[in-house]
Amino acid sequence: MAEDLLDDPDVDALLYVTATPYGLWLIRAVYADTGTDPAPLTGPLSSSPATLRAHLLDELIPALIKARPPSTESGDHFLPRRRLDPATTRRYLTYLARAFPPATTRDIAWWRIAGTHPNANRLVRGTFGLVGGLVGASCSCSRSGMWTGR
Known about the structure:
It is built from 6 helices and no strands.
């Protein structure tokens, strides 16, 4: 069986991907941990290592969500509390990856996430301006006696 796989030209990409611990982890996370049939690994997806790796990365988020069902136990700190939607999770992670590219930083500072939104500064300035204006108007009205009836 192993000799047949090694002689099959379609398996070259699979051998290339599994040559690293990262590739092995991807296959384990997508196929072994979820109980999914790994037959696609030797089919058309194995035409090139890049195609196979792209497939594994595309399937990674849904596989991780499927392998880690929600828990309501207080001791399960590393399990989600509710069912996550793979498409929404991918959108959030894509946003974070674009906002904090690895070439710029390896850390995601939570206090900088709001600053990544294009309208965040305008929104913050507008909120503080509105609150400041209301406080100023309130103080001037109370000094002039407008609200006290004097």
